[in-house]
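Entry type: protein chain
Record version: 2
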Amino acid sequence: MKLTMTALALILVETTAYADAQRGADSQRTDNKLKKLEKRIEQVNDEDQRLVDGNLSSDDETLELYTEDMRPGDDNDISRRKVSVDVSGLATDADVSAGEARVLEKAKARDKRLEAQIDSNSTSISSNTQRIEGFEGRISGLESFAKKNRKGVAGVAAMSSIDFVDNRPQVGLGASVWDGEVGFAVKGMLTLTNDVHVSLGAFGAGGEYGAAGSVVFKF
């Protein structure tokens, strides 16, 4: 005969309450112990007994169940007996605390590693940013230098376009376009003698200016 619903409910309540209070980090060990506990209860159930009382021992390691016969025996007497179930393998509050401490310690260690990695990455990013800014500054300088060169070429081209044809004082104007830069120039020539000519000119492009002069001797 199986246990009555009342007896089975009482057993499960006692077992579940204790397991909930004691369950900790080692769930596998707890599950194995609960299976053993269920098996022992089934054995009691198969012995034609009903649960009438139960309590936990003072050392929290033994669940003491008290059962009695479901019906009188041959002597017309209902005997009562004590059934002890070892629950020492179930997790205790200390096990739970220790498990939580281990998990917390691992989490802290992981956080420290992540923080160190973040700091390292931040340092690398800062270094790379400085290098990039340095490259940008150098590139900007090269672009400025190249732009000045373009302006200079435009101004010189404008100056070289001025030509004198007569052997007498003259003034000429010149203009040019080079790589997007527009240059202008003015140049004057003075004849000192039939064999000596002096010229002086100025040129500019995009706000940059220059000057040039020459003395020509004829032989």
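Comment: The radius of gyration is 53 Å.
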